[in-house]
Design goal:
flavoprotein (chains A, B); oxidoreductase activity, acting on the CH-CH group of donors (chains A, B); 14 strands; Acyl-CoA_Oxase/DH_mid-dom (chains A, B); homodimer; 8-stranded mixed beta sheet; Alkylation response protein AidB-like acyl-CoA dehydrogenase (chains A, B)
C-alpha cells in the first residue's frame, strides 16, 4: 500500500496546536520559519514514502536477525538509513553547537511522525538515538559531548537505553549491573540488560549504549544508580571507533510485532573488558534517566500516532476500493464501495478522529518541550502533566485505530498480506515499553497532580475552560477537575485504582480542547471539511463516551481488595 | 501454562443462567441430570487439560501446513482428535437417532467452551462439524441423514461451511459457484471458495463440505442460492469413503493467528469431476445456511469466551507469581507480587468480570436454542434477538480480555514465549468471521428489533426490568429501550450508524442482568466471593461505562455523510 505523508495535517497541527509561529518568533527557534518547516515536512515525506515505507513489510516478514556476527538488518535498511543520515534528518532538533539544526523538538516530532508512519520499527532506531543525545546534552561532560554528540546528531552512530534487567522490569531500582572504578576515571561495566531496542545492528559503525549500573557501596533502590556511556567500540585517540568493548548480543526476542527492531539481550563485560564512562554525577543516574525517558515517552506516544496514521491510510484506501453489497435503504441494488456503508464510515471516521486527536495531544506536548527549553516554567509544568497522557493515551489510540483497521478490511485484515495485521501487532508493544500505561497513570495521580501544589493541573483545567465552548467537553472538564481534586488527597490505593480511567478522561478532555480549536479554524477546502467532520465526531461521540468512565474514576479500591489475590484463580 | 477447566463457573452458569434444571425436567432433555452434567464437565475438562491444552502452542508455532498431499496438522493433533472422537465428545448435542446423546445445546456449548479455552484453533474443527450436523438434521433427506449424520455425530468425519468467494465476502448473494444437474439427481459442482476453516486436514478419513452454489437459471442474489453436500471422498455402496471427489486445496492463508486452523482456498471441480447432492429444496440455500450459521454465530461468540478464559488464566498465574516493586503507600518497601498493585488488580478484575459476562451471555443464548428446539416461540424470538449480541459482544470481550492479558504480562506479554500474545492474535479473527460484528449490529437493528412487531425486543427489556435491582443497570435498560424505539422507525442510514454502539449497550444491559442474578445467589466460598466481586465490579464500572455510548447510539448518520468519501483520504 502506498504511503502518503500527512503533510497538510502536520502543518495544520504545528500552526494551530503547537503554535509554531510563537516559537519562530523567539531567538532560539528563529530558524523555524514557514519555509523551513514546509521544506522539512516535504523532504522527510519524500524519504519516508520513497525509501522507508517500501521496507515496512520486509521489516516485518524478514525482520532483524541474530547471527554470530551480531544483528543483521534486512536488505535495504542500511541504505535507507544511510540516506536518512546523509539527508540530515537526524540533526533537526539537535543544538547547533553539535552539528544540529537547532530546530524545535516539535519539528523533530513531525519528522519522526512521518518516518514512523512509513515504518514504525525502523524509526525506533533514530528515536532511541534522540534519547541518548538528550542525556548527553544535559548531563555529559564537555569531552563526552565533543566526542560523541556530533556523531549521534547526524545519526552516523546510534544510541540505546539500557535500563531493564530480568528481575528489574518496571522497577528500575532493582537493577544489579555493576560499575567498578578502574582508577583512571573509567569504569568496568558488568551485567545483563534485556529489551534493548536496536542494541545491535549493522547500519552504523558504532553504537553508544547508555547503561544504568550500580557503583560500589551504592545504596539500594533508585538512589544507588548511575548512568554510564558504553560504546560498542572504544574510541581511538582520533575519535574513531577502535577496539571491541566487550558488549555481546546474547539473543534477540521473538516478538509479536515490530520485527524490524531487534530487541536484544546484551551482556556487558563477559570478559571483564567492558569500559564505560560516568555521565553526570555518580548516583545521579535516575535523574539523567528521566531526562532521557521523558522525551522518550513522548516519542512512544508518537508511535501511537504513527501506527494510527499508517493503519488509517490502509483502511481508507481499502474502503475506497473494495466493492461489496448494495447500500441498505437504497433503491439501487448495485454493490457499492464499502466506504458507503454507514458502519464502515463510522469506523473510518473514528480512525480519522482518533488519529488526529492523538497527533494533537503528542504535538502539543512537544511544543511544551520547546517552551520549557527556553525556561518557561509554566510550560515545564504543563509538559510534566501531559507527558503521561501523551504516552498512554497516544498509544491506546494507536492500538484502537489499528484494530479498527483490521475490521475495515474484514477477512483480508486477518491475512498478513494486506499489512493491516502488521500495524496491529506492531502497535501492541507501545502501551508497554517506556513505562507501561499503568505506570503512566500512576505517574499522573502520584506525582503530576500534585505538581506545583496542584497548580499545574489547575492551570490545564483553566486553559481548557477558557477556550472550550462545547457543552459536553465542558462537562467532561468539570468531571476531571472534581476527580483530580478528590484524588489529590485520596489514599494510595484509591488513587491508583482510579488512575487509568482518570488518565483517559483527562486525555480526552485535552484532545477535545485541541480538536475543537482546530475545528474553529478549519477552512472549506477538502482538508478543512474532513477536519471539521472529524472534530464534530470527536465532540459528539468520543467526548461523551469518556464520561462513561466517571464511575470507574470515582470508585474506591475497595472492590479490588475485597478478595484475597488467590481468589482470582478460583 | 497449565490450563484448568472452569468447571465450577460453568456449572454455576448452567444452573443460574441457563437454568439447566428446567431443561432436565422436560422429556426431551431428561438425560441432562445433575450427575450427567457434572460428568460431562469433568470428563471434557480432563481431555482439554491433558491433551488439547499442551498442543495449543504447537498449533501456533508449527501450525497446519499445506503440502502436495493436502493439509497436514502438527504432531499430536491427530491423536488428540481421535481421543475426542472416541470419548464421544462430538455426540453430546446430536439427536439420539443419529448416535448422539441428545443433550442440550447448552451442554455442548460448555464442552466446546472447555476444549476451545484449551486450544481455540483446534476446537474450531468440531465447532464446524456441529454446523454441518445442524444443517443436515434440519434440511437433509432421510438418506443423507442416514449416510452422513452418524459419522459426523461422532466427529469421525468433519464438516465445513463453504460460503465465501473472493468477490463475495459479506455479500453472500454475489457468489458464483455453480451446480449443474447430472440427470441422476446428483449435481456437478464448480467454483472456488475461500476462508474455508479446516477445509482440509489429516485427522479424519472424510470431510463433508456444505457448499452454496447457483443452479442453472437461478435468480441473482441470495434467492438464487442452493446448498449442496460435497464430500471430499464419495461414498461407496457400503457407505465408506471411496473415490476422490475433485475438491482441491489450492492454498492456505498466512494468518495473524489461529494457526492450528488451516484456512483453505478450495477449488471444486477443476477436472469436472466434483459431485454434490442438494440439501433441502433447490433455491432454499439461504434458509439452510441460516440454520447452519445461527448456531455457528453463537459458537463464534463462544470463542470470545474461550480466548478470554485462557488469557485470564494466564494473566492471573503470572500476576500471582511475578514479583515487582513495593506496594505504593505501604511502609513496607519489599517488592510484592504484581497482583498486589491496584492497577494490575483492576485489569485482572476486569478480565474476570468480562469473561464471566461473555460466558453468561453466550450460555444464555444457548439455553434459548434448547427451548426453541422444543417449540417455545418466545425462546425462539429471544434467541434471534440475542444471537447478534452473543456473537459480536462475546468476541469484542474476547479481544479486550486478551489485550489486557498482554498488558498484565508487561514486556513478557509481547514476547511470544509466554502465550499471552497468541490469545491476542487468535482472538482477532472472531469479530470478523461468521458475519462481521458490524453485520451483527446491522442484523440487530435491521431485522431483530422489528421481530414480532418489536415484541421480542420489548420482552427482553421487560424481563430485565422485572429482575434487575441495580439503579445504573436500570438506567442503562431505560436508555436501551428509548434507543430501540427510536431506531425502529429511523431511516436505514441512521439505524446503521447507531447500530454498533447500541449493540454494545444492549449487550451490557443483558450481561448486567445475568451477572446481577448470579451475584444474588453466589455463596460464601472462594468461588462465590470471586463471583460477587466480579459482579459488583461489572455493575459499578462496566455498566456505567456503556452509558457513555448513549451519545453515539442516539446520533444520526449526518456527521458520517457530511463529506464525500474521497475526503477520508484528504
Amino acid at each position: 500500500m502506498a504511503f502518503t505523508p500527512a503533510t497538510t495535517e502536520q502543518r495544520f497541527v504545528l500552526d494551530h496546536v503547537v503554535r509554531i509561529a510563537e516559537l519562530a518568533n523567539t531567538e532560539r527557534y528563529s530558524a523555524a520559519s514557514d519555509d523551513v518547516v514546509d521544506a522539512v515536512l516535504e523532504g522527510v515525506g519524500q524519504l519516508a514514502a520513497g525509501e522507508w515505507a517500501p521496507l515496512n513489510r520486509t521489516g516485518d516478514t524478514v525482520g532483524a536477525k541474530w547471527t554470530d556476527r551480531g544483528v543483521v538488518m534486512p536488505d535495504g535498511f542500511a541504505q535507507a538509513y544511510k540516506d536518512y543520515v546523509e539527508g540530515g534528518w537526524g540533526t533537526i532538533g539537535v543544538e547547533e553547537e553539535w552539528g544540529g539544526q537547532g530546530l524545535p523538538f516539535a519539528i523533530q516530532t513531525a519528522v519522526l511522525d512521518t518516518l514512523g508512519s512509513a515504518n514504525m520499527g525502523f524509526a525506533l532506531c533514530p528515536t532511541l538515538t534522540v534519547g541518548a543525545i538528550e542525556a548527553l546534552q544535559h548531563h555529559g561532560s564537555p569531552e563526552q559531548q565533543a566526542l560523541y554528540l556530533p556523531h549521534l546528531a547526524t545519526g552516523e552512530w546510534t544510541g540505546t537505553m539500557n535500563l531493564t534487567e530480568p528481575q528489574a522490569g518496571s522497577d528500575v531500582g532493582a537493577l544489579r549491573a555493576t560499575a567498578t572504578p578502574l582508577g583512571d576515571g573509567k569504569w568496568s561495566i558488568k551485567g545483563t540488560k534485556i529489551y534493548i531496542s536496536f542494541g545491535d545492528h549493522d547500519m552504523a559503525p558504532n553504537i553508544v549504549h547508555l547503561v544504568l549500573a550500580r557503583t560500589p557501596g551504592a545504596p539500594a533502590g533508585t538512589k544507588g544508580i548511575s548512568l554510564f556511556l558504553v560504546p560498542k567500540y572504544r574510541l581511538k585517540d582520533d575519535g574513531t571507533p577502535g577496539d571491541f568493548n566487550d558488549v555481546r548480543v546474547v539473543s534477540i526476542e521473538h516478538k509479536m510485532g515490530l520485527h524490524a527492531s531487534p530487541t536484544c539481550v546484551l551482556s556487558f563485560g563477559d570478559n571483564d573488558d567492558c569500559i564505560g564512562e560516568l555521565i553526570g554525577a555518580e548516583l545521579g543516574g535516575i535523574r539523567a534517566m528521566f531526562t532521557m525517558m521523558n522525551n522518550a515517552r513522548l516519542n512512544v506516544g508518537l508511535q501511537g500516532v504513527q501506527v494510527a496514521e499508517g493503519a488509517t491510510q490502509g483502511a481508507v484506501a481499502y474502503a475506497l476500493d473494495r466493492v461489496q453489497s448494495a447500500r441498505a435503504g437504497s433503491p439501487n441494488k448495485e454493490s457499492v464501495k464499502i466506504v458507503e456503508h454507514p458502519d464502515v464510515r463510522r469506523m473510518l471516521m473514528r480512525m480519522k478522529a482518533q488519529t488526529q486527536a492523538a497527533r494533537a495531544l503528542v504535538y502539543y506536548a512537544a511544543g511544551q518541550v520547546d517552551r520549557a527549553n527556553m525556561g518557561d516554567h509554566a510550560a515545564r509544568n504543563r509538559l510534566e502533566l501531559v507527558t503521561p497522557l501523551a504516552k498512554a493515551h497516544g498509544t491506546d489510540l494507536g492500538n484502537e485505530v489499528a484494530s479498527l483497521g483490521i475490521q475495515v478490511h474484514g477477512g483480508m485484515g486477518y491475512v498478513e498480506e494486506t499489512g493491516a495485521a502488521q500495524y496491529f501487532r506492531d502497535a501492541r508493544i507501545t502501551p508497554i515499553y517506556e513505562g507501561t500505561n499503568g505506570i503512566q497513570a500512576a505517574d499522573l495521580v502520584g506525582r503530576k497532580l500534585g505538581l506545583d501544589n496542584g497548580g499545574a493541573f489547575a492551570a490545564l483545567i483553566a486553559d481548557i475552560r477558557a477556550e472550550a465552548k462545547d457543552e459536553r467537553l465542558l462537562a467532561l472538564v468539570d468531571a476531571c477537575e472534581a476527580i483530580g481534586r478528590r484524588l489529590a488527597t485520596a489514599d494510595a490505593d484509591d488513587k491508583l485504582a482510579a488512575s487509568y480511567p482518570f488518565l483517559t478522561m483527562l486525555s480526552v478532555a485535552t484532545c477535545g480542547w485541541l480538536m475543537e480549536r482546530q475545528g474553529g479554524v478549519a477552512g472549506t477546502d477538502d482538508f478543512g471539511r474532513m477536519k471539521a467532520a472529524a472534530v464534530r465526531f470527536y465532540l459528539d461521540q468520543i467526548v461523551p463516551e469518556a464520561m462513561g468512565l466517571n464511575a470507574a474514576a470515582t470508585a474506591s479500591a475497595a472492590v479490588l481488595y475485597a478478595i484475597e489475590p488467590e481468589l482470582f484463580a478460583a
